[in-house]
Structure formats: C-alpha cells, structure tokens
Amino acid sequence: MPAEFLESALLRESGFRHAFFTRRGGVSEGPYASLNFSRSVGDDPERVTQNFALAGETLGLGPERIHFLAQVHGNAAVGLNGDESASATAEREGDALVSRAPGLACGVRIADCVPILVADEQSGAVAAIHAGWRGIVRGVIEAGLARLRETAGGDVKLVAALGPHIRLWSFEVGEDVAEELAAVSPVPCVVRRDGMKPHVRLDNIVRAKLVAAGVAAERIDDVGGCTFSEDERFFSYRRDGKTGGRHLAAIVTRPA
Prior knowledge:
Elements: E1 5-6, H1 9-13, E2 18-21, H2 45-59, E3 66-67, E4 77-80, H3 86-89, E5 96-99, E6 105-110, E7 114-120, E8 126-131, H4 133-138, H5 140-152, E9 158-162, H6 175-184, E10 190-191, E11 199-200, H7 202-212, E12 220-222, H8 237-240, E13 247-252
Parallel strand pairs: 3-6, 4-5, 9-12
Antiparallel strand pairs: 1-2, 2-13, 5-8, 6-13, 7-8, 7-9, 10-11
C-alpha cells in the first residue's frame, strides 16, 4: 500500500509537488501505525527511515532531500540554500522552513497543529510552517511569509494550503489560551456555549493571518481532516499523548 496523502488542488495546479500525509500506508506498528515520521516518540528508527523513503517516492525525490526542523512552537523562520544535509537541518530549532533551492522539500511534522504549505508562483520558492497555538500567538505565520518573500526576491504571487489539524469542536481550551488567541486573531475565532469551555477555530485565525500577510483569500486552500476526531486516518497528540506518531507535510521547490 503506498503512502496515503491529501493534496491541495491550488498547489497542484500551480505546479508544486507536495503532500499532507495521513497515518496510513507506512511500515510502523503499534501506536505508531503506520506512517510515522518521528524517531523521538519511541518508534523503531529503521521503520521511520522506511517511511521517509515512501514519502520520497510520493514527492519524487530522495528522502535525504526532505528537510524539517526541530520544532519548538516558536516563531523562528529558517532558510535553506540547498547545501545543507537533512540531518543537519533537523538539529536546527525553528517552526518555519523556507527555500528556493532546486530539488528540495521543506517539511513540518505535526499531530494536531496546523501545517501550512506556501509557494511563490513567480520564483518557485516554498515554505512549510508549523502553526500550533503558541506559534500562532508568537507570530510564526508572519515570520514564515516574511522569510519566503525575502527568499523569493521581487514581487511574489503566493498560494497556500492548510492541512489536517485539530478542528473547532475538538479543540477545547482554557480561558487564558482563548484570550491569547483572540487577541492576535484578525477575525472571530473563539466559540463559547453555556456549560462548555471555550473552543477555537485555528483555521479561521490562519486564513485571516495569511490574508493579512498578502495571500489572496481565493488562493488559500484547506484539504480538510480533523486529527483528533479521525483516529483511523490521523495521529493526535491531544488524543494519544506522547506515545503516538507524527505526520509529515512537505512541499518541493520548482523552477521559476
């Protein structure tokens, strides 16, 4: 069974190879079944290596060209020139990865946070952004897009896609978190009902922030999927805790 993934029609039509991988179609077992992309959660490292090989087949490049960072829920945006090794990139802290180097994929690993893949149709530069609630509050979306514009140079024509993440009725938060997110959101994002804790629509915030940063609303896609409620398709940190897998979302640069 090949690695299962979701795809954005907008990114595909713009000529960008990419994938929002689900948990299906890999070789890992137990709580990591089956397409897990993290070696630090307790999975067999060799199985994770095989899963990256499967991802490389889907993306059309070698697994050693799939880059991702040590994510820390911050706002650091890291640029790659193409000479770095994927293993070296994985040791660098950050939550947004940007490049226009040929034949390279920028990726993020997620298990409830919002994966955002962004591309510039003019230069072929791409960005992968890991947008958890803390990163959203700290400005990771703005930082990632600023680094993408800097990397692209000149005028940009951006297209973006959101991947599977924890959705509104699964994302219950405390009042403190709700207030922090509401304070940075350009649009309403918190839903309150009698007898319930606040719930938050992260996709509302992400879309609004992308638009505020210069991405046209009609050039933003959402491939769907709730990581928390769809346990057969997705891993979820909130549902499963530390003993569970991580997804990969990745996008490949293309010639200008």
